[in-house]
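Internal QA ticket QA-208
Title: Verify multi-chain structure generation after dependency bump
Assignee: T.L.

Test input:
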Amino acid sequence: MRQLEQRILEDGRVLPGEVLKVDGFLNHQVDPDLMFAIGSEFAYLFRGEGITKILTVESSGIAPAVMTGLQLHVPVVFARKHKSVTLIDDLFTAEVYSYTKKTSNQISIAKKFLSADDKVLIIDDFLANGQAVQGLFEICDQAKAEIAGAGMVIEKVFQTGHQMIKDRGVRLESLAQITSFEGNQVHFASETTD
Amino acid sequence: MRQLEQRILEDGRVLPGEVLKVDGFLNHQVDPDLMFAIGSEFAYLFRGEGITKILTVESSGIAPAVMTGLQLHVPVVFARKHKSVTLIDDLFTAEVYSYTKKTSNQISIAKKFLSADDKVLIIDDFLANGQAVQGLFEICDQAKAEIAGAGMVIEKVFQTGHQMIKDRGVRLESLAQITSFEGNQVHFASETTD
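Actual output:
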């Protein structure tokens, strides 16, 4: 998605450890018009899949997920993060390790909001090691919900999340695919395909 | 806002301690079309105020805030919640006590996203004791930003947040004003004014 790549080049900052900081438009300050364009793109890409529900994880996934839900006219459920939850009967839960924060969290979704009748689209802001997506897969499995696809705003294709989703046989659409960093420079997969 | 009140009557549940649970459309599962309608209403109400930025607090404020930002075409910044942050130079921070969770959190906003040039609209999902709004007021004061208004999706007018905002002289617009609970019944201010 050209508009998104352009914005990453203008406002993103590359930090040590191959971290891309996009807090100016995606995960602290949010550009609602760009989020709407992102939602349009996901809604277009997954329009034929019979999606009944969008899942994401708080907090940075919410804006792109809700904009996609607006254009597919389906509800969005955002998983809550907790340090740990004692077993609660009415929740689906999964463990998610964050490589950037070096902490483990549980994520949870109330059982009443996900069922075997659902065809789920997973939306998130970033795909790197895919821990959050893996956690949402586990929650979908617990609910016996069908996973129709995963839509990632920004993907670092050289990390393990990409392959994890492919291995599971889930359709993956990422709107900006980063292939490498060179100093402060960001390279996209589209550079070689355009 | 009639559509919102209707939805509260259909899907909300009153829990002990005058807690209204609206996790079916606002703060766990989210109805994007309703959020868009809420954003339209806030954008209409505050259209003449010269708003330059919307502030909210993660996570439940994000969906209504981003939908308002979409229709006012201004950026949204969501404050991050932390257990506590060691003093960090580049953050505005405030302490927020949650009566429902009985825990204290710090909220923070990066200094680069808020300045004395901003006219701020604060959006949040719930106004009860107003602790989150108070925290955002403190952050605006630190930034010397002007507070143009506060837009609350649901307000419990009988709790202290309403008066706190009025005392500060800030314009307050709440889309559903709850005046009392009677068992499982919810009463709105609009019942007496319509």
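Spot checks passed. Chain A touches chain B at residues 23-25, 28-33, 35-36, 58-59, 62-63, 66-67, 69-70, 73-78, 80, 109-110, 113 (CB under 8 Å).
Status: verified.
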